[in-house]
Design goal:
single chain; mainly alpha; two-stranded antiparallel sheet; elongated; two-stranded antiparallel ribbon
């Protein structure tokens, strides 16, 4: 006879993982911050491992996703320019331009230097004050954890327990008990 695999729990956790990833991606796209190139959204994934004795559901995304989700505290020391280079790339992708004191866009005088100045100002602000996280993943996880996971796991566990008991009794009745 085939080995017991916990198919119902596997299906419930897989559905939970998919729904959580979908909601997190939607939160990124619809959110105020966190969606620039789409790399973070594309990196959202989960890994599910179900064995007879344990279940493991692990969510994964790019490293900077944690800072987007939870936020960043103010810095106490310099990161050696790591943040500046990332912000500079963002300024160049967004083609941010300087503004006059009246708020109108100014013409480029020295594009590279002005972009570096904008990146410096943004980086300095982040280092001094930090920023609040968007909660794109935490909100998605909490929503599905509270709404669907307890009832679906309870049902799946009961179905799998029933299957496990039938499997065990068949093994005992067929004389395949190794004890």
């Amino acid at each position: 006879m085939a080995e017991f695999e916990g198919e119902h729990i596997k299906r419930a956790l897989k559905k939970f993982g998919q729904k959580t990833i979908q909601r997190a991606a939607a939160n990124l796209v619809n959110g105020k911050r966190g969606y620039d190139t789409g790399a973070l959204m594309k990196s959202l994934d989960y890994d599910l491992a179900v064995t007879l004795n344990s279940f493991m559901l692990k969510f994964d995304y790019l490293d900077y996703g944690e800072e987007i989700d939870k936020g960043r505290k103010r810095s106490t020391k310099s990161n050696g320019g790591v943040l500046f280079n990332k912000i500079l790339g963002w300024v160049q992708r967004k083609n941010l331009r300087p503004r006059s004191s009246t708020g109108q866009f100014e013409a480029w005088k020295n594009k590279t230097q002005q972009q570096r100045s904008i990146a410096f100002l943004v980086t300095r602000k982040i280092h001094r004050f930090g920023y609040e996280g968007t909660g794109f993943f935490t909100k998605a996880f909490d929503y599905h954890y509270k709404k669907t996971l307890p009832s679906s796991i309870k049902k799946a566990y009961m179905l799998d327990f029933d299957s496990f008991m039938k499997y065990t009794l068949d093994e005992i009745n067929n004389g395949n008990n190794r004890n």
